[in-house]
Known about the structure:
By secondary structure, the chain is of the alpha/beta class. 33% of the residues lie in helices and 19% in strands.
Amino acid sequence: MQICALAKTTLLDYPQHVAATVFLGGCNFRCPYCHNRDIVFANDSIKNGTLTPYGKEELFAFLEKRKNILTGVCVTGGEPTLNPDLPDFLREIKAFGYSVKLDTNGSNPDMLKHLIETGMIDYCAMDIKNSPSKYGITIGLPDIPADSALLTRICKSVDILMTAGNDGFDCEFRTTIVKELHDGDDILVISDWIAGAPAYFLQSYAESDGVIAKGFHAHDKETLKYFADLCRAAVPNTQLRGVEL
Length: 245
């Protein structure tokens, strides 16, 4: 497991918590608009010196020191569920008394189900990248068809979270909206897919130096507001995140 970065304090990543965010390296997606390029390609980033990983002991010393200030830890990536030792890692974090939030792309439903059932996570945010017909191109793997095994696993993760959410588990779905990749039809398909979800957040794309591929753009605010309105018929708790209205 590669601990690639640590945001020591955030009020945004974990709802209702003052949290730290831990970034684990590696990802099985290649979303071209992702702004965590060095973390997605962690092995190369470490080799060429653009990224220096944290030792687990260094992270745990920080968590011990801050446990009277922080209340939560968000574990993100990359894709954390690629790590088979993730449950043990989260168990160690929880031993400090922290609540744990997981960010995932939903590609490992068996791991997700295990983490929920064993109480290793208290909150989960799953990315819905796009409507199934455009999933491949959106995750940078354009040869993957809409009926692929990967999409089957993602659908299974959606079902797991929907069931857990109905049983009181705290979770959300979210989509980063990119002008070149998402239109109103896609948004309607996604909202129907997760109809009745506890929460759905639309996040606007923002260019950064760390993006995998440049040249993408954000929709204007009015279009984003329109997309949110489209979703509310199926997911009443749909909100815009990171968009100044």
